[in-house]
Amino acid sequence: MWIVNLALRRPYTFIVLAIFILIAGVLSILSTPKDIFPSINIPVISVIWTFTGMAPEEVEQHITSPYERVLTTTVDNIEHIESQSLNGIAVVKIYLQPNASVPAGIAQVTSVSQAVLKQLPNGITPPLVLSYSAFPARPSLTHTEESKGTWKWTSTIRLYKATA
Question: Do residues 26 and 80 share a domain?
Fold first, then answer.
């Protein structure tokens, strides 16, 4: 109750305070940077090797393990490597340090991938090297109507678009 009594005794103080808050709010809104598609660095590179007819164990022994060994010794700024060996497919994800240059990492990974082809089984094709980008990450909203007349809303957001 004391603040109400103070406001009644000194109305100009509270009017000046309200005007100050209004001006500070408008200035902060105008000075806040806005970007509809901010630059988001995703330091992940994926390499996909294909060699049809190989079992997952053979893919791991003959493709994934040698490739990971070469990566760890030749590519800079690697945080960690994850790999998955499937029937005839090896997927290697290279996570770079947060401050690493992704284009430089892609260049190093591509050159290492070309150089390591001689050490891999005969007939293997060069890998697909992918980097991840958050642009364009446009949210989309879809809706469906159920039979009872109520609406069911589903929000779908694409987070990453793979670029070659």
Answer: no
The pTM is what?
A: 0.61
Per-residue model confidence as pLDDT tens for the chain (164 residues): 888 888 888 889 989 999 999 999 999 999 988 777 666 778 899 999 999 889 999 999 999 999 999 999 999 999 999 999 999 999 999 999 988 888 899 999 999 999 999 899 998 989 999 887 665 544 444 444 444 454 444 444 444 444 44
List phi, psi (to 5°) of 24. Answer: -65, -40
Same domain, 23 and 56: no
Q: What is the CATH number of the domain that holds 90?
A: 3.30.70.1430
Q: Which of 130, 128, 133 is nearest to 89 (CA)?
A: 128
